[in-house]
Amino acid sequence: MIPKPQPGEYHEYYQKYIQSISDQADILELLQTQRQEVVQLFGRVSESEADFAYAPGKWSVKQLLGHMNDTERIMAYRALCISRGEQNPLPGFDENQYVANAFFEERTLSGLLEEHQTVRQATLALFSSFHPQAIARLGNANGSPVTVAALAFIIAGHERHHLNLLKERYLVKL
Fold first, then answer.
1. Where are the alpha helices (H) located in 46-147, listed in sequence order?
2. Under a CB-based contact definition with an 8 Å cutoff, are residues 153 and 21 in contact?
3. What is the DSSP string of 30-53?
4. Cα–Cα distance between 41 and 71 in angstroms, integer?
5. How far apart are CA 41 and CA 49, in angstroms?
6. What integer pLDDT is reported at residue 10 of this predicted model?
7. Second CATH level (architecture) for the domain 12-171
8. What is the distance, to the nearest Å, from the Cα of residue 86 to the centroid of all Cα atoms in its chain?
9. Furthest-apart CA pair in the chain: how many Å?
10. What pTM, to 2 d.p., does this model score?
11. How many CA atoms lie within 13 A of 130 on its CB side?
12. What does the H/E/C string look like for 54-66?
């Protein structure tokens, strides 16, 4: 089991994501459960509705899911690097720049959803493979300390955040 991270194991920006996860959560089980939730929620959106954005300047449904996929990959990469003892600082990323350069609008929602399932399976395999000592390792990402454990909770909390946005700001208008 991966223990819930404590302050000091992550930048305060990620507090909202980590706090959204129960102290008793089995994070690997939650990550597995979220796979089905993503399919269920995004499955309510048709291909013709997938370019919908709830307000001007906001991401479309496809961009939202693409962002979730990108972020999970980046956080999992950080976890891999830190688990293996990487001492060099890992770079940050500009989520808006990534979305702007990804051409998600040219892809299908079903393709992005299939990608999510593959990315999540890889994330589960990665975190399941970590030794307890690796889970506790502290590295540096985007100029701040972060543990491998914190990255697992950030992935789950980030997804929970965006699934809540999907329910509250997108699905109610479709």
1. 61-83, 95-100, 109-129, 132-135
2. yes
3. HHHHHHHHHHHHHTTS-GGGTT--
4. 19
5. 13
6. 98
7. Up-down Bundle (1.20)
8. 21
9. 47
10. 0.98
11. 28
12. CCCCCCCHHHHHH
Write down the residue that tokens 């990804």 correspond to. 102
| The two three-digit tokens of residue 174, written as one number | 């479709």
What burial letters (b/e) apply to 61-83, b meaning 16+ CB within 10 Å?
bbbbbbbbbbbbebbbebbbbbb
In contact, 31 and 75? CB cutoff 8 Å: no
Contacts of residue 151, defined as CB under 8 A and 6 or more positions apart, other chains included, come to 75, 76, 78, 79, 82
Whole-angstrom Cα distance, residue 45 to residue 31? 22
- Residue 147: strand pairing partners: 138
Burial grade of 143 (CB within 10 A; 0-12, 13-18, 19 or more): exposed
> End-to-end distance of the chain based on CA atoms, in angstroms?
39
Q: CA separation (Å) from 38 to 21, 26, 43, 50, 139?
A: 17, 18, 8, 14, 30
Q: With a cut of 50, list the residues of the chain below it in pLDDT.
A: none
- What per-residue confidence (pLDDT) applies to 141? 98
